[in-house]
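Section 3.1: Structural characterization of target chains.
Under the original work plan, the team committed to producing a structural model for every single-chain target entering the pipeline before any wet-lab resources were allocated. The record below documents one such target. The sequence was received from the expression subgroup and is listed exactly as submitted; it comprises 482 residues.
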Amino acid sequence: MRTRNGLARRPAWFALFPFMLFLLAACGEGETESAAADGAEAGAKPAEVTSTEPERAGEGPLAPQIFKLSNGLDVVVITDERAPVVTHMVWYRVGAADEPPGKSGIAHFLEHLMFKGTEKLEPGEFSQIVARNGGQENAFTSSDYTAYYQRVARDRLPLVMEMEADRMANLRLRDNVVMPERRVILEERRMRIDNDPRAILAEQMDAALFLAHPYRIPVIGWRHEMAGLTTEDAISFYDRFYSPDNAILIVAGDIKAEEIRPLAEKFYGPVPSRELRQERVRPAEPEHKAPRRVDMKDARASQPILQRYYLAPSYTRASEGTGPALDVLGAVLGGSSTSRLYRSLVVEKGIAAAAGAWYQGSNLDDAKFGLYLVPREGVSLEEAEAALDEELKSFMEEGVSAEELERARTMLVAEAVYARDSQEEMARLFGIALTTGSSVQGVIEWPAEIKKVTADDVAAAARLVFEPRRSVTGTLKPGDGA
């Protein structure tokens, strides 16, 4: 994320750790921008640009309409008329896992550089114009996608569409703006990763869990490779992946597809397709034959922590019904204060101060299932790990109760309902799905799929994922030394 101090964590509509978008807000109105916006809205679409007819995907008031421009840009429109504002997002089907070897961090670096100007806009002017028009904007990068967004008043939508389409095709980069920004991302890594023992532990655990797949590489990059990134690297990555046929435009808010269509054709339609979209094939994981461990000591750690990751199939890679079952498994084991791990280890036995579980299933390729536990004072990490293993053993033997199953399904469906109350959250859900191999229909049908999950499905998911040889256990202790 292009914030003062960090990039975005990977989100998902079902993840336990949803990421936060840090908005850069301002008020006021620029006379020049206002005139451009009003004129653009009234302009007629170019006759030579065509698009498919909008089609509604699914049922209900928030079911989106979708269409495609002739240059390959996919467009999703989510109408929400409760306030006269819109969220405008452009998602690119490229992330850190698509970086060339030795260039880790280039996807996130380019995200920063997309604000450094075009032939029409000076460095930083994009953000200044959005702020002067009372808007909010930012961007974020994950392993599988990069996205840029603005939230503006409805009548300012043509303005941000024009600027976003401009930088899709006309980014201008020079060493005098690129090199200072490289120092910014290096400082960002220092603040977000190098100064945080838990972040270091998570980074090292990812590197141990994925033996071959680039998910083992941090999104922000390895410091020694980040320090060598150049202007030419950024231009090459931009030329390779930034094209309308490799992008998705999502607009949510007080507007309909029939209004968006001429605007999309006017501003994005002329951007030439470079036919960049292709099947995203990354190195596959070999067979995992032994569990791994990462044990750390760090004087900056305020308390010990135990974490465990299991390699798991993502929604895209899992067989039918497995993704929802893994989501329910995560909710049953550790999704709330009434979950199995929390109730047993925190409330009843007093072994832990915190305990939980989560499934990060939104990856394009393999995903992970995680467990964590913070021992209560006086309880060693060894005792905590033994207690966690005993709970997993009991769960495998006993299965999930009818009450636990119903509570987990209800919680997950409620979270989906709450998400639909936010136009920004809805836009993110569809963006994540469409850049990671899922579909609009998959997002719409997800609550119904959760409701179908049975106790047997959860038991099968647990047997699938809880394979010690496909795991990495990490511990962090306060103290000196590694």
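The chain has a mean pLDDT of 89.
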